[in-house]
């Protein structure tokens, strides 16, 4: 449970995690060294120096006890204990501080107070507010007295130097390590950008670099990308060649049938048209998502163009008002997106009586939605519906609108994935039929 809670606050990026891995041991080491130094060295030195001062204070108290009157305390201490460089003066009881006075960061002062309280009889309080002098208040037979002496006699000189050196050199070493670490992480980020671009259908130059393991991963990615591109190219050439070669005999058959006056040629012409339409779908599928380059387009204008073309083709389709609070352009392949939307509209009007198209744009995503009033697709078979050459006879009749070869949703899925997005199928709440959403991150 603790690790699950801690995971939410961990950095997401590789730079942040690498910096955490680098800084956390350094910070912990500095804290451990600081604590050990404060406890062993700082506290030990302060204890030794305070013990020495306690012996000198005992001598001062002996002189105070021998003084005939309170007015003789200061001259006698100065005369008899001049080498100690301490001053002792009587003070009224109401001028004695009730509490010890020291700064919040004065660690040695806390050690001194503890030692004076436990080892000095008659100790009242200690005033450490002056950085140069220590004022000790003690109770004697002559009344309260104030003893002052140099703070350097009871505290180590320049105690902060170790802390300054520790944090300064720790910061410098962390900075140097981060520079080297950044050079090691740069090839990984370049590999991630190349892989992300390839997943979105873009090819950016990439050369393996960095450590041996990173070079190996980069070389494997380059080989994999080359194999996939060759496979796509071979598939495109094969389907394009077959489809193109079949167009010529189909054209001759259509011309021959159109020149015949026999009434039985109508069904044959319909079969030829169906074959021509299937070939067009094969060509669209073979072209994939490689047509055109990415460019910044306004999704609202693009959808208006797609719907206008569908309406000119005689399809019952309506463009709904724009949704979302986003604005601006999105990097898209214009021809590919138009083809995907056209396929979704064709499926919608083929299996239903009308279709509605809408676009929602936010700061992070773009969603193109096509809905129809047809029979829809069962949830259990939606994954199968987006596969190439898949035809769901029980859900959406092939006999409506001339049928197809099961490539409409597959083409839309490939185009969405090539843009780094996804095609989602659901149930239309407005029309009751199929709802197809193309969601692309901006």
TrEMBL record:
Q: Which residues cross the membrane?
A: 162-181
Instruction: Supply the EC number(s).
Output: 2.7.13.3
The segment(s) forming the Histidine kinase domain are 241-442
Concerning InterPro entries, the annotation shows: 2C_sensor_his_kinase (IPR050980), HAMP_dom (IPR003660), HATPase_C_sf (IPR036890), HATPase_dom (IPR003594), His_kinase_dom (IPR005467), HisK_dim/P_dom (IPR003661), HisK_dim/P_sf (IPR036097), Sig_transdc_His_kin-like_C (IPR004358)
Q: Which SMART domains match?
A: HATPase_c, HisKA
Look up keyword Signal and say if it applies: no
Positions of the HAMP domain: 182-233
On whether Manganese is a keyword of this UniProt record, the answer is no
Which of UniProt's keywords are assigned here?
ATP-binding, Cell inner membrane, Cell membrane, Kinase, Membrane, Nucleotide-binding, Phosphoprotein, Transferase, Transmembrane, Transmembrane helix, Two-component regulatory system
SUPFAM superfamilies to which the protein is assigned, alphabetical: ATPase domain of HSP90 chaperone/DNA topoisomerase II/histidine kinase, Homodimeric domain of signal transducing histidine kinase
Output this protein's name: histidine kinase
Q: Which organism is it from?
A: Sulfitobacter marinus
Q: What is the lineage of its organism?
A: Bacteria, Pseudomonadati, Pseudomonadota, Alphaproteobacteria, Rhodobacterales
């Amino acid at each position: 449970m603790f690790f699950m809670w801690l995971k939410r606050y961990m950095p997401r990026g590789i730079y942040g995690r690498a910096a955490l891995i680098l800084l956390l041991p350094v910070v912990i080491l500095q804290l451990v060294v600081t604590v050990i130094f404060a406890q062993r060295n700082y506290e030990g030195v302060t204890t030794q120096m305070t013990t020495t001062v306690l012996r000198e204070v005992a001598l001062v108290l002996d002189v105070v006890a021998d003084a005939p009157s309170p007015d003789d305390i200061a001259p006698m201490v100065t005369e008899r204990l001049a080498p100690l460089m301490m001053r002792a003066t009587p003070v009224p009881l109401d001028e004695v501080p009730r509490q010890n006075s020291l700064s919040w960061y004065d660690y040695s002062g806390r050690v001194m107070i503890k030692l004076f309280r436990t080892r000095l009889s008659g100790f009242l309080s200690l005033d450490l507010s002056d950085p140069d002098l220590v004022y000790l208040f003690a109770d004697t037979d002559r009344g309260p007295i104030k003893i002052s002496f140099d703070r350097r006699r009871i505290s180590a000189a320049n105690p902060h130097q170790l802390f300054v050196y520790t944090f300064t050199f720790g910061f410098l070493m962390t900075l140097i390590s981060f520079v080297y670490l950044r050079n090691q992480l740069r090839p990984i980020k370049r590999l991630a950008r190349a892989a992300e671009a390839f997943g979105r259908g873009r090819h950016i130059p990439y050369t393996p670099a960095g450590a041996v393991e990173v070079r190996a991963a980069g070389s494997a990615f380059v080989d994999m990308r080359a194999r996939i591109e060759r496979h796509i190219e071979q598939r495109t050439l094969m389907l394009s060649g077959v489809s193109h070669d079949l167009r010529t005999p189909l054209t001759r058959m259509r011309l021959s049938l159109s020149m015949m006056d026999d009434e039985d040629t109508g069904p044959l012409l319909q079969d030829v048209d169906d074959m021509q339409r299937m070939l067009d779908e094969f060509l669209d599928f073979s072209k994939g998502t490689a047509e055109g380059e990415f460019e910044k387009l306004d999704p609202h204008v693009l959808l208006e163009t797609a719907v206008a073309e569908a309406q000119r083709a005689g399809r019952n389709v309506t463009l709904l008002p724009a949704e979302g609070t986003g604005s601006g352009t999105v990097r898209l392949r214009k021809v590919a997106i138009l083809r995907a939307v056209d396929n979704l509209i064709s499926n919608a009007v083929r299996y239903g009586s009308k279709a509605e198209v809408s676009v929602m744009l936010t700061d992070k995503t773009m969603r193109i939605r096509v809905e129809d009033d047809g029979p829809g697709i069962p949830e259990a078979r939606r994954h199968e519906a987006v596969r190439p050459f898949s035809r769901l006879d029980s859900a959406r009749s092939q006999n409506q609108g001339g049928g197809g070869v099961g490539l409409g949703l597959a083409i839309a899925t490939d185009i969405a994935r090539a843009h780094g997005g996804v095609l989602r199928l659901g149930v239309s709440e407005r029309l009751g039929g199929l709802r197809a959403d193309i969601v692309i991150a901006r």
